[in-house]
Amino acid sequence: MPEPVVLVATMVAKPGQEELVEKTLTAALPAVHAEPGCLRYALHRKAGTTGEFVMIEKWASQEALGAHMKGAAMREVGIALAQALAGPPDMVFLDAVPAGDPDAGAV
Description:
Elements: E1 5-12, H1 18-33, E2 38-45, E3 52-59, H2 62-70, H3 72-81, E4 90-94
Antiparallel strand pairs: 1-3, 1-4, 2-3
């Protein structure tokens, strides 16, 4: 059985582009949630900011994440945000450290 993939992607909007970034990302959520292997795709904003967005993701496998990255929803997001972000998303991949309650102790 493949290992789930957990990542945190941070995106920073250029000044004046915060609303466009938020609307684009929230509009993509239903399509991404319906993708095979999507276990979590949750948009957050860094507290105290208006333009720093954090996506917490969990995919059933590396293959599911790969399909997501090449899928229609991400193509649309990429086109819409091509000029709206201060730079490419910062993607941090995480390895769980099993400890405590299995449900409460992992994403």
